[in-house]
């Protein structure tokens, strides 16, 4: 497995070198909106410390990340009246990973409604409105 590359886009988001629409953070983790959402409220959770994915993550990184995943899962369900939530996590290119900093996708879901296709950027204003709803549901 390759080494962690500190120039990946999520490392730049953590250093504020690249903008992001932040939802929640604590000492160990950060959550922000995915810029190519596959459902309304699609957001990501990452550890603040470096690791490529599940394969090299330390137990403490996984523990804090999954607790934030639970927090955001509950919040997006409340914010979007969802009846379910899908958590996705990809490992290495062959496993579908494109950004090599551990991240969990959180996708609000509804009975019988599929995810939108990947790779479609949406208006920033649209994401800001959704982010506000999620932040309110976190309180
Ligand atoms: P994957 O590594 O396959 O889980 O895909 C990376 C995910 O990160 C995709 O859903 C992208 O839409 C998302 N993404 C890539 N760049 C950014 C960014 N600058 N801000 C927020 N999400 C991003």
Bound ions, cofactors and other small molecules, one mention each: adenosine monophosphate
Number of helices: 3
Radius of gyration: 14 Å
Distance between the termini: 40 Å
Strand content: 15-25%
Which class best fits the helix and strand makeup?
A: alpha+beta
Q: What characterizes the major β-sheet?
A: 5 strands, antiparallel
Strand order of the largest sheet: 1-2-3-5-4
Q: What is the chains' assembly state?
A: single chain
Shape: globular
Count of β-strands: 5
Average pLDDT taken over every residue: 97
Would you identify the regions where 5 or more consecutive residues have pLDDT less than 50? none
**H/E element order:** HEEEHEEH
The share of residues in helices is 25-40%
Any key phrases for this structure?
about 140 residues, alpha+beta, 3 helices, 5 strands, about 20% strand, binds adenosine monophosphate
Summary, kept brief:
This protein has helices at residues 9-14, 59-80, 124-138, and strands at 22-25, 29-33, 43-47, 84-88, 104-109. With 139 residues, it is of the alpha+beta class. It has a 5-stranded antiparallel β-sheet with strand order 1-2-3-5-4.
Write the topology of this structure.
Blueprint (H helix, E strand, L loop, with lengths): L8 H6 L7 E4 L3 E5 L9 E5 L11 H22 L3 E5 L15 E6 L14 H15 L1
Antiparallel strand pairs: 1-2, 2-3, 3-5, 4-5
Helix pairs in contact: 2-3
Bound molecules: adenosine monophosphate.
The site of adenosine monophosphate (AMP) has 12 residues, from loops.
């Amino acid at each position: 497995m390759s080494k962690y590359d500190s120039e990946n886009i999520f490392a730049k988001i953590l250093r504020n070198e690249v903008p992001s629409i932040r939802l929640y953070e604590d000492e160990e983790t950060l959550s922000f909106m995915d810029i190519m959402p596959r459902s309304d409220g699609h957001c990501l959770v990452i550890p603040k410390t470096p690791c490529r994915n599940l394969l090299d993550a330390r137990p403490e990184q996984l523990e804090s990340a999954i607790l934030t995943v639970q927090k955001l899962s509950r919040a997006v369900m409340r914010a979007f009246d969802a009846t379910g939530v899908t958590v996705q996590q990809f490992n290495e290119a062959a496993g579908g990973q494109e950004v090599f900093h551990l991240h969990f996708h959180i996708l609000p879901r509804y009975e019988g409604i599929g995810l939108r296709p990947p790779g479609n950027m949406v208006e920033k204003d649209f994401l800001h409105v959704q982010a506000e709803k999620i932040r309110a549901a976190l309180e």
